[in-house]
Design a protein that fits this description.
This protein is about 35% helix and about 15% strand. By secondary structure, the protein is α/β, with parallel strands linked by helices. Helix 5 (about 145-160) crosses helix 6 (about 175-185) and helix 5 crosses helix 11.
Length: about 325
């Protein structure tokens, strides 16, 4: 999917990338176009627009896939990268988040990539550091770069997003991916459906303006994309779901249920997968129907576009 015109680096209206909610449709398209350009040139040298910059990956939650993706993206653009392991840091010894922010600020990084189990933490940090902040996932709130890479994967497969029917299935209540994708994919004109047992829906579901289904086969009927979510048991209180076996029978995606989706429906999953719980291995590994590996590939290109956009926007302000 190559283009003759090279999309320019994106200029953001805000200093930080804390979420998709509130992002303009124009900015969504610009980020996706720039990310698609990077995806086309992944095996080639690209202009090192972040040369001389310092990126800090500050992950309070483990996520090898996302952290490495940000690291590779930053290095491809010429940045220096520092990974801070919170498990062995002063945070584990009792240092407050604000103390950590003050310490990091003294090191003068250009961009902080932050993942935290508490919603709103990237915003809080943004009030106490000079660096730009990218939210790499905060609690149950948002995961903007995941939604952007999902949208990029879809756009490069289908050629468009507007008009597609997309079912997001599983643990909606605990999923920041579901929220960010609703804001992004819905903002770009897709019809979004949430498919979930009632115990795994957020109390505010009525305010989100999305179709909700409690029957898997009805929910994915005629959908172009079926996106599965894992059960985030680490955020549950233990009463939300039946046994994993029963959950799979009701809400797990297998070949039989997939027959109710559109004839050429594609399968997505943000990872990590719980095989045999929310998705059958035969479906996950079906090279003709599964976009799961392509999502991982698109992660680097998407994060290149986001890191560059923040750094470019900061340079214009200076």
């Amino acid at each position: 999917m190559t283009t003759n015109t090279i999309p320019a680096p994106v200029t953001l209206s805000a200093k930080h990338l804390l979420g998709i909610e509130g992002m303009s449709v124009m900015t969504m398209h610009q980020l996706l176009d720039r990310a698609s350009y990077f995806a086309d040139h992944m095996t080639q040298d690209v202009e090192q627009t972040l040369k001389g910059s310092t990126i800090v990956n500050l992950f309070f939650e483990n996520s090898t896939r996302t952290r490495v993706s940000f690291e590779v993206a930053a290095k491809k653009l010429g940045a220096s990268v520092l990974n801070i392991s919170v498990a062995g840091s002063s945070v584990k010894k009792g240092e407050t988040l604000i103390d950590t922010a003050t310490t990091l600020n003294a090191m003068h990084p250009d961009i902080l990539v932050v993942r935290h189990h508490a919603a709103g933490t990237p915003y809080l940090l943004s009030q106490h550091v000079d660096a730009a902040i990218i939210n790499a996932g905060d609690g149950r709130r948002e995961h903007p770069t995941q939604a952007l890479l999902d949208a990029l994967t879809i756009k490069r497969k289908f050629g468009h997003i507007e008009g597609l029917r997309i079912a997001i299935c599983g643990d909606i209540a605990n999923s920041r991916v579901a929220r960010s994708n609703l804001y992004l994919l819905g903002g770009l004109g897709a019809e979004i459906r949430f498919v979930s047992p009632s115990t795994l829906l957020p109390p505010s579901i009525g305010d989100l303006g999305v179709g909700v289904y409690h029957d898997m086969r009805e929910g994915i009927k005629d959908c172009d994309i079926v996106m599965m979510l894992r059960l985030q048991t680490e955020r549950m209180e233990g009463r939300e779901t039946p046994s994993q076996h029963e959950y799979f029978n009701l809400f797990g995606l297998d070949s039989e249920k997939l027959q109710d989706a559109a004839p050429n429906a594609m399968i997505m999953h943000p990872g990590p997968m719980n095989r045999g719980v929310e998705i059958d291995s035969l479906i996950a590994d079906d090279h003709e129907r599964s976009l799961i590996q392509k999502q991982v590939e698109m992660g680097v290109a998407t994060r290149m576009a986001c890191l560059e956009a923040l750094y470019h926007s900061m340079a214009l302000v200076k």
